[in-house]
Design goal:
It is elongated, with a radius of gyration of 18 Å. It contains 3 helices and no strands. By secondary structure, the chain is mainly α. The chain is about 65% helix and about 0% strand.
Length: about 70
């Protein structure tokens, strides 16, 4: 978790519960506006994908047990 996220969480915890709900809904809308189809990758996801692609280029394959299916 980045420092910005940690600071944001600390600030959210200062708010009354009703305002926390408002902030949560706002964040959800912000994320949906940024990635409405949930197709963008986080930095960690991008690195994992690039590593997998490199392995495939060298004849390696991803094991079924390495895939997070949920």
């Amino acid at each position: 978790m980045t420092q910005i996220v940690q600071e944001s969480v600390r600030m959210l915890e200062m708010l009354p519960e009703s305002e926390q709900e408002f902030a949560s809904q706002f964040i959800k809308r912000l994320v949906l506006a940024w990635d409405p189809d949930f197709t963008k990758l986080t930095l960690e996801e991008r690195e994992r994908l690039e590593t997998a692609e490199k392995r495939m280029d060298h004849g390696e394959y991803i094991k079924d047990s390495d895939i997070e299916w949920d």
